[in-house]
Amino acid sequence: MGPEDVDFLGRYLDYHPELKSSIRTQPPTVWFQDRWKRIKEVRLLKTGIEFRIRGGGHLRFFPEKERTAVRERFRTPFLNLLQSRFPHWKILKILTGTDRNRHQTAALLRLHLWDGRHHLAAVAIYPGETVELTDRVLSSAILWWDHLRRKGCVDRILIFIPECWTTRLLSSFPRLELPLICYEYQLEEKSGRDYRPKSRLKKIYPRSVKSSQLGRPYVIFPYRENVPVLLHQIKQEHPLLHLSFRHGRWELSFRGLRIAWHDNNRDQCFFNLADPCLLTASTLADFEEHLEQVSKVRCFPPTEPKHPYYRLAQERWLESLIVSDHSIFNADFVDVVYSQVPTYLDGERKVLDLLTATKGGRLAVLELKVDKDLDLIFQALDYWERVWHHLKQGDFQRAGYFPKIPLSRESPLLYLISPLFEFHRVMPVLKKYLKEEIELKCVGINSDWKRELTILRKFEF
């Protein structure tokens, strides 16, 4: 790709922000077959955008307004594929579109099938959907299964996914207490506007033990003990600032908003997110002015509720309050707590909200949400899965985390922390299909937590 192509791609993403989770411009890469892969060529189509991948393969994305038409054109060929692959199956019910009462997304085709002996619940992910829907797919599939299960008429659940979705879902399947079978379908282009499934389905779950092993996860950034001198000096002068190691670098924040940070590559410090400036002894006066402006706006009750300094990084604001005294959630927690720990698993980078341990050395993952989120439980499960793999491999202590704390080999604890009335009402339904090894604890806090953080209720499903 040339500079003109990269510039075009950047402008296209500005008009279609929903694709930013699947496409990057620096360097130009796209999420394809469970990896970020370099883009060889980009081509604008009448209905979307197409990428040619280095090493072979191509992928299309459709803007939101085009997806409905894509889904409609895909539906009949897919049903024909099912009938040809499983001729004895009968389709008893087909549901499409968004179903808010049952919390179903339009990105899934829902089916009720009969194979002559068993009733089957089935969901199929349409092509061209962004990978950020992974957690929603799990939630919707389980809720569809539970809906039919309560009628007492299903024995198995089937999930049909495009070929580029494999690992993101497969890593979660073993933690579900479900009679689940997953098939992968490949796509072939029949015309300039259509994506049709090929005449074959590949069973990819359950798999053999050997082929079920994921690539070894590891902590992508080691913990750096040496705090930059300038940041340490500023922290000493401003006790209200929080100095933490996040995203693999040291930074100063005020109520969760990053104020100053250290760039490991250039070995320099910077401040001001809106217009980064070099932080040196000669620019400390400018930094003090910036800090004063932020502290006047980022307060509760707010003086300027629409100001970016108040509205940005709400979850990090909550995180800063929890880090200051995380023992209120469990008196057995050690003093050490890490925020935004970066991890890598099978080519995908993610960061954990908070990670700590009990005095007995058992790790605890703390996942935070300030708004209602149907997918919270599976987002947290993804982080829990990563921590569990890291623990078994001994990655944390090799990378400098939890020094002098012998970590237990027990599975990590998982805490969901959110305003009490923001916990989604279907979470108990989703939780009952998780295996017992996942010890999930919920903590409901007050809705005006910015004034003062208070625990209203601790509960388990």
Descriptive notes:
The protein is an alpha+beta fold and 461 residues long. It has four domains: 3-61, no CATH class; 65-212, Trna Endonuclease, Chain: A, domain 1, CATH 3.40.1350; 229-310, no CATH class; 315-459, Trna Endonuclease, Chain: A, domain 1, CATH 3.40.1350. 26% of the residues lie in helices and 32% in strands. It has eleven helices and 23 strands. The strands form four sheets. Strands 12-18-19-20-21-22-23 form a seven-stranded mixed sheet, sandwiched between helices. The longest helix is centred in the N-terminal third of the chain and has 22 residues, at 64-85.
In short, what is this structure?
The chain has 4 domains: 3-61, no CATH class; 65-212, Trna Endonuclease, Chain: A, domain 1 (3-Layer(aba) Sandwich), CATH 3.40.1350; 229-310, no CATH class; 315-459, Trna Endonuclease, Chain: A, domain 1, CATH 3.40.1350. It has 11 helices and 23 strands.
